[in-house]
Specification:
This protein is an alpha+beta fold. It has helices at residues 30-38, 78-82, 112-115, 160-163, 170-194, 222-234, 251-258, 261-266, and strands spanning 50-51, 54-55, 84-89, 97-104, 131-138, 140-144, 146-147, 152-153, 156-159, 200-201, 245-249, 280-284, 287-291, 297-299, 305-312, 317-321, 326-329, 338-351, 357-362.
C-alpha cells in the first residue's frame, strides 16, 4: 500500500549540508615539514583567489586548513633544519644552478716507514694535487595540482555564482586543496630521493629486497637498528645538536619493534622531544626514532611488500628556492566568472651526499 514518504513525495523533502566538518586524517608529511623548517618554502594561501579586482566571492562558513587534519603538529624546528646541508636562496644569486664544493681528502699510506725522511734523503719537490668534490643544485619551475586523468598540471576552478551560495567558502576549500597538494608534492620528492641513498641495511640473513621471499620473513628488530648505527659510524656521519642521528620508520616497522625484546629493553622515551619532532617515538642507541607513514613500501620480485625506512645524520638534504611558492590565477577567467588557480614555485632538490644516510629495509 502506498505511503507518503520521501520516495513517493520527494517534492516535500530537501537535504541540507551542515557547516560542521568531519575529520579527514592526513599524514604529518615529515620531510616537507623539515624543508619548511630549513627555509621559507611554505605555500601561503591568500584570503581571496583570482585576479586582482576580479577575485572570487568568499561567502560561506570557514573551512579547515590541511594542517588541522594532520597528525601531531609540533613546534620544534632546529633539528629538522639541521637535516639540510644547504638552503639556497636563488633570488640572491645569479644563474639557475648553484655548485657546492666539498673537500676530497685522499687516503694514502700512513705507516711510519712511509713517512720517515732519513739522512741524506731529499724530500720531493714535485707537488701533488688537492682534491675537491662538487654537487649541483639546479632550480626548476614546478606547479600543481595534477590532472591524473590527462597526465598534466591543471588548475582548480571556482564559479563566482556558486561561490556566493555554498555552505563553506569555496575559496577556502580550493586554497586548502592547493596547500595540501603542494605539501604532499614536497614530501613525496624527498621520500623518493631517499631511495637513492648509496647503501641499505637489512635484518640478519638478508642483503637485497628480493631475498625477502614471504611476508613477515624479515621483520624489523633491534639488531637491524644497531647495524644501521654501525654503518653510519663507519662512514663518519656526524650527529645532530642533541648528540643523536635520526631513524625514520614506517608504522609496520615500529609495530614489529615493539615485539622485539631487545628494543623494549634499550629504548627510552623522553617526553620533552614530543615538542621537538613530529611523531617522536623513542630514543635508542644514538638515534631519535621517528614515525612517518609516507615512506615507500614497494613490492619485490616475490610480490612481498618491503618497507623503506631510513637513518641519517645532519646535512643529508640540499634545497633551493627561487621565486617563493605562490597561488597564481589564470587570465582565462570568463570575464571574472570562472576563476582558475594553481600553485607555482621555483625549487631545487638534491641529496647533498648520498652517503650521509642508509636505507633500512624490512619485509
Amino acid at each position: 500500500m502506498p505511503t507518503a514518504s520521501r520516495l513517493t513525495l520527494p517534492e516535500n523533502f530537501f537535504d541540507i549540508t551542515s557547516d560542521e566538518l568531519l575529520l579527514q586524517p592526513e599524514p604529518q608529511y615529515l620531510f616537507a615539514r623539515m624543508m619548511f623548517s630549513a627555509m621559507m618554502a611554505e605555500l601561503a594561501i591568500p584570503a581571496e583567489l583570482g585576479l586582482a579586482g576580479r577575485t572570487m566571492p568568499t561567502s560561506g562558513a570557514p573551512y579547515v586548513t590541511p594542517e588541522s587534519q594532520q597528525l601531531d603538529l609540533n613546534a620544534g624546528q632546529e633539528i629538522q633544519a639541521q637535516a639540510f646541508a644547504c638552503a639556497i636562496d636563488f633570488n640572491a644569486k645569479p644563474g639557475g644552478t648553484v655548485r657546492l664544493n666539498r673537500p676530497l681528502y685522499p687516503n694514502t699510506t700512513y705507516t711510519l716507514a712511509s713517512r720517515v725522511v732519513g739522512s741524506n734523503t731529499s724530500i720531493s719537490t714535485t707537488p701533488i694535487a688537492v682534491g675537491s668534490e662538487q654537487t649541483d643544485l639546479t632550480l626548476f619551475r614546478y606547479a600543481g595540482p595534477y590532472d591524473q586523468a590527462n597526465s598534466r598540471v591543471a588548475p582548480y576552478g571556482i564559479e563566482a555564482f556558486d561561490a556566493n551560495m555554498g555552505v563553506h567558502k569555496l575559496a577556502a576549500i580550493v586554497g586548502g586543496n592547493l596547500k595540501r597538494d603542494y605539501t604532499k608534492f614536497l614530501d613525496s620528492v624527498w621520500v623518493t630521493l631517499l631511495d637513492s641513498l648509496s647503501s641499505s641495511v637489512y635484518p640478519k640473513g638478508f642483503t637485497v629486497d628480493n631475498d625477502i621471499a614471504s611476508v613477515g620473513a624479515a621483520p624489523m628488530d633491534f639488531d637491524t637498528i644497531a647495524r644501521a648505527e654501525r654503518a653510519l659510524d663507519e662512514a663518519n656521519i656526524p650527529y645532530f645538536g642533541t648528540g643523536k642521528r635520526l631513524f625514520v620508520a614506517t608504522p609496520q616497522q615500529l609495530q614489529e619493534l615493539k615485539n622485539d625484546a631487545q628494543y623494549s629493553r634499550y629504548a627510552e622515551f623522553f617526553p620533552q622531544y614530543n615538542a621537538l619532532f613530529p611523531e617522536y617515538v623513542a630514543d635508542i642507541g644514538k638515534f631519535h626514532v621517528l614515525k612517518s607513514n609516507t615512506l615507500l613500501k614497494t613490492a619485490n620480485s616475490s610480490s612481498v611488500p618491503v618497507n623503506h625506512g631510513c637513518a641519517f645524520g645532519p646535512g643529508l638534504f640540499g634545497a633551493g628556492v627561487g621565486r617563493p611558492p605562490r597561488v597564481a590565477a589564470s587570465t582565462d577567467d570568463n570575464y571574472g566568472e570562472t576563476g582558475k588557480v594553481v600553485w607555482i614555485a621555483d625549487l631545487a632538490f638534491q641529496l647533498s651526499n648520498n652517503t650521509f644516510g642508509v636505507g633500512v629495509r624490512t619485509g
